[in-house]
Amino acid sequence: MILRNGVSFLWYGIKNKKIKLLPFIINFLILLVAIRNINVILQERSIIVLLILLFINVFWQIIGTFSDVFRYFQHVGLDENRVKIDFEKINISEKEKELGFENVIAVENGAFVSKDLNTYLQTANEPGCCIENIKSKHVQDYIDRNFQTTFLFIKCRLQNANAGRKNFYNQKKLCLAKDIEPGAPIVFSKGCYYNTHATNKTYFSFLYDNDGQEIFSPLYRDYGDNIPSISASVMSDEIGISTIGITTDGYIVVLRQNIKANASPGLLVPTGSGSADWSDYTSGGFFQTIIAATNRELYEEVGKPKSFNAQSIAKTKIIGFFRWINMGGKPEFLSISKLNIGLNQIVPNKDEQMPMIISKYIGDQKSKKIDYETLHHFLEEIKANDKCSFPLYINILILQEYYRQHRGDFEFFLFE
């Protein structure tokens, strides 16, 4: 785990040109050739001094590369803290006000939510999607300009992950490149896990160095309480996904993360939650892409039951969207899933969840009826639980709004 984290971190430095790999390879090859042909070189007495100087230069540059790698990995004393957010002062962009977004606040977390957009996602035909590189270039330009600072946040989190023996390796991620507008294709971009930490996940963070000095995210310095729209942002905007699952035998299910999980440790979470990988992208459509990512996470977190795969584990419907303020407005898609397995077939993934399953019987496949009173009380209990994660809280809010407004559609989805 620590080795994989380290290799991933090293490769991130090479890709960001902070460790120059090509000159090292060239110089190393020159050194090997020189050593292999040392007898021939010694016979050419007229150029021996020149060759010795070349040998020393090559060797010195190789040592310099190793020194750069050492400094790159050298432990630094950094403590990370979070800015105390006054959610009442967080400003929504003019673009998102036009799209109907409002602030939703729950204890220490906040979100931008649009009921109009959620209704559109629940009822719209496939809007189509595409990949655009402009956003990812803006993100990379921001990271290049501020690498000395953003690198420290990533390094601090790597050190903490290694100390806790947690995974912290870079992965290719699917990101949102532009605001979602009804009737227009959804635009995605390519990103990576470390870029998410360098942008969205550090927006409201600051570090203390060994001298007690505060190091703030450049994004917070530039934008403060005015979180920009997706289209105007230089943040990676990696797509988060979560879904609440209902089993074939009529149980609604939530899980609890173990304390070593990278996200929401120790908290109640949706049946499936995580983020969209680059490999989840499907050129065939936006809904297909988000549902593929959601079902993949769901399949992994209910224990990869035999005879099923990420495509067959459930039927999933997107019901909403929000931007997580605490994560710099990180985009999150919310769903419900009709699982194709019963409650007793769920075995929570021990790498991420505790073995406990929190469930409630709410519906009968034969009568095709939902006990909405039982469902309501169960969801209200989960929302009121101090262990309820924010993605689960918002997912419940939007699920409640969905079945209040579209009860017939909800029942049809579960019982067709």
Describe the structure.
By secondary structure, this protein is an alpha+beta fold. The protein contains 14 helices and 17 strands. The chain has helices at 2-15, 21-36, 38-43, 48-73, 94-98, 115-123, 134-145, 147-163, 193-198, 218-223, 286-301, 372-384, 390-405, 407-415, and strands at 79-82, 101-106, 109-114, 129-131, 172-176, 186-192, 205-208, 214-216, 240-246, 251-257, 268-269, 272-275, 314-324, 330-339, 353-361, 363-364, 369-370. The strands form four sheets. Strands 2, 3, 9, 10, 11, 12, 13, 14 and 15 form a nine-stranded mixed β-sheet that branches. A three-stranded antiparallel β-sheet has the order 1-7-8. A hairpin with a 4-residue loop joins strand 9 (240-246) and strand 10. The longest helix has 26 residues, at 48-73. The mean pLDDT is 87.
SSE arrangement:
Blueprint: H1 2-15, H2 21-36, H3 38-43, H4 48-73, E1 79-82, H5 94-98, E2 101-106, E3 109-114, H6 115-123, E4 129-131, H7 134-145, H8 147-163, E5 172-176, E6 186-192, H9 193-198, E7 205-208, E8 214-216, H10 218-223, E9 240-246, E10 251-257, E11 268-269, E12 272-275, H11 286-301, E13 314-324, E14 330-339, E15 353-361, E16 363-364, E17 369-370, H12 372-384, H13 390-405, H14 407-415
Parallel strand pairs: 4-6, 9-14
Antiparallel strand pairs: 1-7, 2-3, 3-13, 5-6, 7-8, 9-10, 9-12, 10-11, 10-15, 13-14, 16-17
Helix pairs in contact: 1-8, 2-4, 12-13, 13-14
